[in-house]
């Protein structure tokens, strides 16, 4: 067969497979997921099909890939394999060619619902930037072991004469001080170098603005505006997950600013390499500068923060109460602050002194919620660390033993340590089926019986997680 003939027969085979898929999964599923697939390439190794977005590609891979391979193999036994890829971007950066409706749909938002600067005019930097919280300054930021690297990096950015690293990438869990540090940088620069244009905004707002710019066909103004900034801070970039057009726009803005030696600061809830729903090139770019993580709080940091807050409010809180709070409210700093505020507000309202008893009474619900509860995310993180694999491997399709075993261990621990059901656990592991989780649990149980040292390992992990 010539190359052409073969392409043709592959096309015919694919059409037939499509018919079977439609019959099997129904018209709705076929239309939304399978019919957008196109033959990308044919080679000696088999066929590569492409999906329009990364999200669709991943979904197809986890839900339909096996079946597609089976059906195709039953028509053509010599077929080596079927692979899935994301269709090459056909969006031309710099032109308003991108379809706003599609981007909005990708983002899962209705354009009309976005209440932001509107209309057919260029925006100002003041409109684009989010307001800064006056409390989020360097003076109010308590430094401790978990955040010292991030803090030092932030100070470096405001003190250095040249851009010290680009970007500064801050990451850590919810309520650990990422936004506080970014605002602190912005305040500092605003106060001391008023001529430098500093813009802070959330990734979400960046996306909204971008969509509006597309909608009103002023993407050129949008680009010019962002490219005029001296220091650009984008908070919570994990929000750009699967939003490919927004990522693309950000990527170009990012490169333009880096080329002009402007400072970029980005935050996220995960490290760049674990942001697996961002495009590879953006992810890798984000990791080029300094990556600083903020760890979970320690007792000492929590106590330090409480003391600092009480001092700021000018209220004397008994040491015993502060120690109690630092000991018991471990989830994050936002909750810790909330607890202190509640205790103080209550005492002021009823005109009584703050005591350990009144504190326990006022915070009963919060304290119960802070009783040690292990989350599946924590389990995945710990297990990944322990076995030296990436957290993203917990969700990935990779089947090699080196990652499959840790994944099974994490599923097993999730079953043991959380009240989650098998299907719920499966979903948290890259959308796996409940039978996969069941199999993992059995497998680990068997291994524990067969291998005492493995069993000890698991026991260790368990104790660590239960804290
Ligand atoms: P994140 O952006 O990481 O979710 P935030 O920056 O919003 O967290 O911080 C949550 C709350 O905790 C804020 O009120 C912030 O002022 C406070 N906070 C966080 N870290 C510190 C710190 N090191 N010292 C004082 N307050 C802090
Ligand atoms: Mg934040």
In brief, what are we looking at here?
The chain has 467 residues and is an alpha/beta fold. The protein has 4 domains: 3-90, 2-Layer Sandwich (GMP Synthetase, Chain A, domain 3); 129-294, 3-Layer(aba) Sandwich (Rossmann fold), CATH 3.40.50; 299-371, Orthogonal Bundle (Helicase, Ruva Protein, domain 3), CATH 1.10.8.60; 376-466, Chromosomal Replication Initiator Protein Dnaa, Chain: A (Orthogonal Bundle), CATH 1.10.1750.10. The chain has helices spanning 3-25, 27-34, 54-63, 65-75, 100-107, 125-128, 148-159, 178-192, 203-215, 219-227, 244-259, 280-286, 299-313, 319-328, 333-350, 356-362, 364-369, 376-387, 401-417, 422-428, 434-450, 452-466; strands at 38-43, 46-51, 82-86, 168-172, 198-202, 231-235, 263-268, 290-294.
